[in-house]
Amino acid sequence: MAAVETIHVDGVWRAAASGAQREVLDPADAKTLAVVAEGGAEDTDAAIAAARRAFDQGPWPGTPVAERAALLRRVADLLQRDRETIALIESRDTGKTLEEGRVDVDDVTNAFRYFADLVAGESAGRVVDAGTPDVHSVVVHEPVGVCAMITPWNYPLLQASWKVAPALAAGNTFVIKPSEVTPLSTVHLVKLLAEAGLPAGVANVVTGAGDPVGARLSEHPDVDLVSFTGGLVSGTKVAQAAAPTVKKVALELGGKNPNVVFADACATAEGFDTAVDQALNAAFIHSGQVCSAGARLIIEESVRERFVAELARRAEKIKLGRGTEDGVECGPLVSAQQLDKTEAYVASALEEGALLRCGGKQPEPSEVRPATGYFYLPTVLDQCHREMRVVREETFGPILTVESFQTEDEAVTLANDTEYGLAGAVWSADTARARRVAARLRHGTVWINDYHPYLPQAEWGGFGKSGVGRELGPAGLDEYRETKHVYENLRPSPVRWFAG
């Protein structure tokens, strides 16, 4: 299979300088889906140099806001034009269902349109009252400069858009490194940016591994900001590499997210059905490979057995298969490595005393098509406790752990007993209690009687080891800007501080 020129530097698509290539596998059957360029340090340096020139000497940073916003809207239109193509790429590359891929494209489109509208609606600056008519004082925002973007494999296009759209809206240039496991939709996005009229050198992409590409992006002195989404271990390395150059760093490092269910949420048949359905959605969408997955069910003891029994019954009926096939509800894990990790987490949980309510193994070959992919059955582990690895660590697989509580304070304590703090949910028919508990949860996003929806106009990010900085919302734009105070004396005169 011929290598695809997937490195984009200064407006030109090319192969890796070393000639190295990498096979991208279809997780549904473990067969080769594409061959891409395997970039290295030389390619990364070239891309950074192109982005540096485009920022220091090119037209993009000085392009009027209205024109930048117009380009983002053209990109949004192109995304919708290519919606089916991109959704198929995302489904085949990540293993998610085709419908999930379509939703991702729509969410990406909304992100581009949101940041276009946000930046276009801003004033020229914030006037500061200096207390005298002889001074004009204004606070303005300017682009950071060259941005390095390192994105994960679970939502490659979506996570790219959360970085690319605000960076371009603010007037930056960038180099993006998609996950080496799922690079294809990001390559397509960069092609759409060029088609929309983005000047050469503003958008650059290097496909390749975290070491050396991500490491070089993080440490390079000509990079002004690095934005990383991924695991805690890798994120820590990014921060360490960026520290000597004191560049801006934004990190989204996942979570171990509680889904707290009070008994009163299950008091009616409709309430019970909804809470169970949403618990399934929280834990098993995209095979649990979601940073905000509700992987910890924390349920009131009085309804625990009934709730978990029904949850397990429904989980056993989830239809696995290739994401492009009709009727499939859940695709494979993204890689053999992720499958091995999932098996290891379940094994450790059982050794530590968890009760397996369903799943806990790969499906039989007759139960899923194609039978050679990285599939794992949705798994519910009951009678879990905080000391278990599967409860403490982000598993990123179709694993739901169950803990129980008897009082509101105990529920809050359990929900906050984590190093992470990305997202969580509380279910209750008592509005006052739901809001009270939500206020006490130390998580960046808290849902009440819902799970997973987000809004591009609302900030996304976490507390604790879930990272630093925010994406989306006005704060997501501010990550890609520097703030400058311009103080103008309209009537300058001698100060006479020094007598001579």
Automatic annotation (TrEMBL):
Q: Which InterPro entries match?
A: Ald_DH/histidinol_DH, Ald_DH_C, Ald_DH_CS_CYS, Ald_DH_CS_GLU, Ald_DH_N, Aldehyde_DH_dom
**According to the lineage, what is the superkingdom?**
Bacteria
Domain Aldehyde dehydrogenase spans what residues?
Answer: 13-486
Q: Which Pfam families match?
A: Aldedh
Q: Active site annotated at which positions?
A: E252
* PANTHER family xrefs: BETAINE ALDEHYDE DEHYDROGENASE, BETAINE ALDEHYDE DEHYDROGENASE-RELATED
Entry's family note: Belongs to the aldehyde dehydrogenase family.
Q: What is this protein called?
A: Aldehyde dehydrogenase family protein
User: What pathway is this protein a component of?
Assistant: Amine and polyamine biosynthesis; betaine biosynthesis via choline pathway; betaine from betaine aldehyde: step 1/1
Keyword terms: NAD, Oxidoreductase
